[in-house]
Write a structure and sequence with these properties.
With about 375 residues, the chain is α+β, with helices and mostly antiparallel strands. It contains 13 helices and 8 strands.
Length: about 375
Amino acid sequence: MRLDFNLPEDVEEVKQKARKFAIEEFNDKTASRHDLEELYPYELRKKAFEAGLVRIDNPWGVLLTMEEFCRVDPGLGLSILASVFGSELLLLYGTDEQRQKYMEPVLNGSKISAVAVTEPGAGSDVAGISSKLEKSDDGFLLDGQKMFITNGTITDFFYVLARTSPPPSKEKRHHGMSVAIVDRYWPGVSVNKLKGKLGMRATDTAEIKFEGVKVPNENIIGEIGKGFYYIMTFFNISRVYVAAQSVGIAQGALDELLNYVKNSGSNEESLQFILAESASKLEAARLLTYKAASLVFQFNPDPALTSMAKYFSAEVANSVTESALEYMGQKGLLSRLERLYRDSKITEIWEGTSEIEKLVIARTLIKRAMQGDQIA
């Protein structure tokens, strides 16, 4: 049997197109301005849609576009691609009416979506959320608070995870949750932009409050009480994209170091060790990410493998950027590498912290061992 690690021609074309777009559009002046002023890149987003680079019907294309965009500037790249955040929820579980009303405008670039799960007291512990969707005469009333929500102040609507019933027991805290589509401009919805972030400053991040928000029955996604499972399925998808962000960041940092080497003529042994170790880690992260993604895109995700890709790639992004910055010193601090270094940290946190990913991996392996299944 021959394993082919080459990308299909059409996917390679998307990768090269994304690379060219990022180099031309994410110039240092533009990237620095959006980072320093924390501006959302509306015009760049429009151009990316016009170029056909934001298409979730081509998941491999999106994955490689994410990698190439983040290779040049993670803040701008993520801002553009995250404008369709959560659309998979409607693809998998939504009604035709919901897809037509909410998903289609997002996919053609005329609207922006957001996923609202994290709360001040429930980050990685999704089962600990306290937001409530209480039944009313003509639908539901939503009350609660969400924190660190990507696209929070620029979105047109949220996919909100909230409780529709109390958990039946401590062991089943993940039961009784549902996902609702909530319009950004409905009465009772208030948003507050969070500023001064460490990295990814071009992305929009906000605190959201829901106070007596009326949600019609037709805005509930799928079955009542199945929301936790829907969100976990979505995370299995989104985590491979975060892994691709990390791979892109690591590649960008290695690019900066190699450019420094080329211009400075440095060639000492310590530098050679850094280059060899960084390139090896990067290649391992990329292969792991692509393998996890291949299963996700075949509708056969392996949660352990997905968590491996997300956790390991984030670790590599932070390791490679730190090594490059330490070697380049002042030159690195005054270059694009400084942004890459700051942007890398969040990859260890969002869509499940590295600690959570490790728990998923370990528990899956133990479960398979106990069931006598193949471990690897």
